[in-house]
Amino acid sequence: MKLQQLEMLHALAETGTLQAAAERLHRSQAAVSMGLKTLEQDVGFSLFDRTGYRLTLTERGQQFLRQARELLVQKNRLASLTQQLREGAEPSLRVAYDHTCSPRDLFAAIAQVQKTYPATELIMTGESQLRSLRRISAAEADIALCPWMPLFHQHGDFETKFIRDFELIIAMAPTLGERFGRIPQRRTELLDLPMLMPQDQELGINLDALIKVPGQQRIRVNDSITQRALLLAGMGWGIIPVELVRGALQSEQLVKVDIPGFLNNVSLEVHLVRASDRVTGPAAQLIWDAF
């Protein structure tokens, strides 16, 4: 039994097909198939049910995979730790943040990184629609700041740390409310006004199901920065993180729409996220420890 075979098993379970597993591992499909057959011979029982169109894990295979994943996590952590011990502070620190979360939350910790590890290059990447989590899963970022719900654990092996509550509000430009002669106070009064609606999230958040407003006019955008600009232009009303419009609210460029019970089903937090199967370098660890 070899770690390479366990990696093939894990890749197949994650992707669902031999071809996709081979592409992920940058191996030929024949090599992956042979490796899995050899693994079954080594363990002495069937890992896969081959009666259907696609390979599926047997009950024993599922149990075996759970333990195999623990070995792969330890292998990745050991490789990451070896690199950190060999190289010292990481030459670059990749920080991803969701556009819905203000990177100001990280500024104090980043200033400490600049002071303590001046040779470490900081690479800041703003993402939309929770793609920062994708970057963590793909090892394209070391640490991320993003909205968080427990269900996101199904999309990767994450370790998270609470930063603050993620507060959403309904906002619009005062000029938009002039169509009514006042700011809407009931859900039904929003139906005749254009709604600025984020596009479907990649990680399973269905805002249509949460909000339940069948408005006829919609403008869909793929990031909160664009949504904010459209709000300021009076192009519609929208649900947006309060941190992104706090200044506009204070200057009365936007107004908050208070409709009791409208956002009761939307509950998120802002978390710092990293991969639990990789050892972070000292610069990334400094940011993590700051919270």
Distance between the termini: 41 Å
Helix content: 40-55%
Number of helices: 11
Number of strands: 12
Organism: Pseudidiomarina taiwanensis
Protein name: LysR family transcriptional regulator
GO molecular function, one term: transcription cis-regulatory region binding
InterPro entries: LysR_HTH_N, LysR_subst-bd, WH-like_DNA-bd_sf, WH_DNA-bd_sf
Structural write-up:
The protein is α/β, with parallel strands linked by helices and 291 residues long. The protein has 2 domains: 3-85, Arc Repressor Mutant, subunit A, CATH 1.10.10; 89-291, D-Maltodextrin-Binding Protein, domain 2, CATH 3.40.190. The protein is 41% helix and 21% strand. It is built from 11 helices and 12 strands. The strands form 3 sheets. It has a 5-stranded mixed β-sheet, with helices on both faces. Strand 1 (48-49) and strand 2 (56-57) form a beta hairpin. The longest helix is centred in the first third of the chain and has 29 residues, at 59-87. It is flat. 29% of the residues are buried. The model has no long low-confidence stretch (mean pLDDT 83). Belongs to the LysR transcriptional regulatory family. One of its GO terms (molecular function) is DNA-binding transcription factor activity. It comes from Pseudidiomarina taiwanensis. Keywords: DNA-binding, Transcription, Transcription regulation. This is LysR family transcriptional regulator.
